[in-house]
Write a structure and sequence with these properties.
GO terms for molecular function: kynurenine-oxoglutarate transaminase activity; methionine-oxo-acid transaminase activity; pyridoxal phosphate binding. The protein has 2 domains: 115 residues, Aspartate Aminotransferase, domain 1 (Alpha-Beta Complex), CATH 3.90.1150; 234 residues, Type I PLP-dependent aspartate aminotransferase-like (Major domain) (Aspartate Aminotransferase, domain 2, 3-Layer(aba) Sandwich), CATH 3.40.640.10. The protein is built from 13 helices and 13 strands. Helix 2 packs across helix 10, helix 4 packs across helix 9 and helix 11 packs parallel to helix 13. Bound molecules: 4'-deoxy-4'-aminopyridoxal-5'-phosphate (PMP) and glutamine. The site of 4'-deoxy-4'-aminopyridoxal-5'-phosphate has 15 residues, from helix 4 and helix 8.
Length: 375
């Protein structure tokens, strides 16, 4: 019998495959299509001929851990111990999986806020624990009334994602105050904060769990170099957690992958000395504005986008179809692949919205907009 009977193939695989089959422009799965910084590929080319190809230490390459600690201090004024509090993971996905496996027991509950990224549920089910999926408000802010209503002594974890995939919404100061109040009411509650888009925010600076000392002792933050350096295929990220939680997470990590590929750890460690991560927000803000401007000429209605490289659009003015049907027609008849938003809900809420990834070169975005004009 299947251990995950209602988990299918992820929508990202399904839509990217359809995009290839239909020879469509792929704005579905979130990955950039422009070249990686030559400074980074030059580092890799140089390292490739050196003696860097054996196992990295289990927690990560020490100079990389050191640099992440410095980056965390520079970005968020938080001091973390590179030896004890940081773990290099095979993408944020492995960090999330290892964290959930390490900390959640059978019959405990985990709060997830829908629409939610799709890698949270399966590891919870594999723990024989219960995902409690609460929809965000219509403007995609957390519904604190509902969250407070469902939280109880069995709630082990709340998973937050800020900036938010798929909606591009970011958390405000008042959301963090609500989260701290919730934590005060439930001393055993742990926060798993998925911040893979931390450096991709626009008008407002990113507020991180790292800014909230009250939560440090009970929170895990997850970051992804895939997002920050346009290298999603490298599958490398990291987790920061207080030592007592990290000790448990490392126990799972060591038998899941043991350690992450060595050459990318060494390359990123060198690259961190020369790259300006703080320019990423501006880079993607220009892409967002460029894409939104192009889409103004279409019948799609654009929702606000405060961070990430995703733009949500409503097609309610165009069609009455459910979003999966509409998305499939969009790729087969119009040659543009997108992601239906209902897929990110437990109870498939059909808001007639789809998600586009705008991490693409300008000519791809222009061509996609021309096709969408025909809708
Ligand atoms: N969390 C969110 C919100 C994401 O969008 C993604 C996709 N990149 C991940 C986690 C997984 O990141 P990674 O590719 O580093 O595993
Ligand atoms: N995070 C990417 C997205 O939201 C997908 C990553 C994946 O394909 N697993 O599109």
């Amino acid at each position: 019998m299947s251990k995950l009977p209602h988990i299918g193939t992820t929508i990202f695989t399904v839509m990217s495959q359809m995009a290839t089959e239909c020879n469509a422009i792929n704005l579905s799965q979130g990955f950039p299509n422009f070249p990686v910084d030559k400074q980074l590929t030059d580092i890799v080319a140089r390292l490739a001929t050196q003696n860097v190809h054996q196992y990295a230490p289990m927690s990560g390459y020490p100079p990389l851990l050191e640099k992440i600690s410095n980056l965390t201090q520079q970005s968020y004024q938080r001091v973390v111990n590179p030896k004890e509090d940081i773990l290099i993971t095979a993408g944020a996905t492995e960090g999330i999986f290892a964290t959930i496996q390490a900390l959640v027991n059978a019959n405990e509950e985990v709060i997830i806020l829908d629409p939610s990224y799709d890698c949270y549920e399966a590891p919870i089910l594999l723990c024989n624990a219960k995902p409690i999926r609460i929809s965000l408000n219509d403007d995609y802010t957390p519904n604190w009334e509902k969250i407070n209503e469902v939280a109880n002594e069995k709630t082990k974890l709340i998973i937050t994602n800020n900036p938010h995939n798929p909606t591009g919404k970011t958390w405000t100061e008042s959301d963090f105050i609500q989260l701290e109040k919730l934590a005060d009411s439930f001393p055993n509650l742990i926060v798993l904060s998925d911040e893979v888009y931390e450096y991709i925010t626009f008008e407002q600076p990113h507020i991180s769990i790292h800014h909230r000392p009250k939560l440090w002792n009970r929170s895990i933050t997850v970051s992804s170099f895939g997002k920050s350096f346009h290298i999603t295929g490298w599958k490398i990220g990291y987790v920061i957690a207080p030592e007592h939680l990290m000790k448990e997470i490392k126990k799972v990590h060591q038998f899941l992958v043991f350690s992450v590929n060595s050459i990318s750890q060494i390359a990123i460690s060198e690259y961190l000395d020369i790259v300006d991560v703080y320019s990423l927000g501006n880079f993607y803000q220009q892409k967002r504005d460029f894409f939104r401007n192009l889409l103004k000429e279409t019948k799609l209605q654009l929702l606000p986008c405060e961070g990430t490289y995703f733009q949500v659009a409503s097609y309610a003015g165009i069609s009455n179809e459910d979003d999966l049907t509409f998305t499939k027609r969009l790729v087969t008849e119009f040659g543009v692949a997108a992601i239906p938003i209902s897929i990110f809900y437990a109870n498939e809420k059909d808001a007639k919205c789809i998600r586009f990834c705008f991490a693409k070169d300008d000519s791809t975005l222009i061509e996609a907009a021309e096709r969408l004009m025909k809708l």
